[in-house]
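Predict structure. Chain length: 110.
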Amino acid sequence: ILENAPKKIKKYLKDCADWKNFEIVGDFVNYRRLLSFENLIVEADETVLPNRSIFFEIEIESEDTQAAKQKIEQKMRELRISFVNSNVVKLDRLLKLKPELRCSRVFSKQ
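Prediction complete.
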């Protein structure tokens, strides 16, 4: 598994005595775009799962979350963009796939 780990974490895993307990459960690609809208920073994610399904989500960090949410929802309605509130995180979406479909490439079991 160490050879398949991203380079940025390989050095930490090498120094970890029990790194062999790690297991790759899947992967996905996430594109994050940071947008400025009416003094808010909007994190807009486009996520591609290994089965090529794509979903989008936005997140806004704000002191006044209700006001920020209302601004974004109003703009989306004006633009005729459909949306729903969701509590499903990216990992949950990935884990809903069958285990053999959770990886976009073949990983060694070593």
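Summary: The helical segments are 7-14, 65-78, 90-95.
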